[in-house]
Write a structure and sequence with these properties.
It contains 3 helices and 10 strands. Strand 7 and strand 8 form a beta hairpin. It starts with a strand and ends in a 9-residue tail after the last strand. The protein is an alpha+beta fold. It has a 7-stranded mixed beta sheet with strand order 2-1-6-5-9-8-7. Strands 4-3-10 form a 3-stranded antiparallel beta sheet, with no helix packed on it.
């Protein structure tokens, strides 16, 4: 698994805001982030959200983002996988295969808990039809099992 991008946000724009307008908390792309076992990513809105929270960190596949760009005829250079508000943008792994499994990224251990299901906000944030297009491939929620630091790595020909 390659880690392409890392995002954190100090607050919720969509989570818990059904029936209200989205929040205005920035999504910040960082080159590295501290993972704290049992708590989340330092600096992110879900850090210490609640004990044993299943979504201490979220993963999203860069391949899925590129497929959505193609499906909706959006140039990747004009948008970002950060619009989906997942923390870690990956490449080279089917994230659904990690549900119910422990896995490691750059020396940090995680436990995949459940799919990060798409919601109605996706249609507003990216493009109408995105929620339906993401069913079954909206990303992965996970718990952090060990402390460590993750680093994003840009690849040659990077479109993300």
């Amino acid at each position: 698994m390659h880690l392409r991008k890392i995002y954190v946000s100090p607050g919720h724009n969509y989570f818990g805001r059904h029936g209200m307008p989205p929040g205005e908390h920035p999504l910040v792309e960082v080159t590295s982030v501290e993972c704290v076992a049992g708590s989340g990513l330092r600096g992110d809105r879900f850090f210490d959200y609640k004990a044993d929270y299943k979504g201490q960190v979220t993963f999203f596949a860069n391949e899925v983002w590129l497929e959505l760009c193609a499906q909706f005829q959006i140039l990747p250079e004009t948008t970002s996988p950060g619009l989906f508000r997942r923390n870690l943008i990956t490449e080279g792994v089917d994230l659904n295969t990690l549900i119910g499994r422990e896995f490691e990224v750059q020396g940090v251990r995680f436990a995949g808990t459940t799919e990060c299901s798409p919601c109605h906000w996706m249609d507003r944030a990216f493009h109408p039809g995105t929620e339906a297009a993401l069913r079954g491939r909206g990303g992965l929620r996970a718990r952090i099992l060990t402390h460590g630091r993750l680093h994003a790595k840009t690849l040659v020909g990077d479109h993300a």
